[in-house]
Design goal:
globular
Amino acid sequence: MRALLIALGAGVGAPLRFIIDKKVKKHHRSLIPIETLLINTIGSFVLGLTVRSDGNTILILGTGFAGAFTTWSTFAVETHHLFDHKHRLKAWLYLALTLILGISAAWLGVNLTN
């Protein structure tokens, strides 16, 4: 049953990530991969909202949705790409923004559930 709940959340999270990624790339050009930054910040907020929830909510929204919605691997490859192409300032900016916004969003989500 747990795996099914996780799969249900992931079945929404992964396609939504794909849609947001494509829409943002189509309409916005930026110095850094803003689409991944946005997706990971939203996912951090959602996970923060769920950490104090009951078992089913954390499975569906936390593990399933947020797990499939966010993308550490894309963030890692994009950061490497920026460094590899000598865009060091952009890479450090992207790295810092991802950490600051992600942790802040998770903190906000957790504290909204108090």
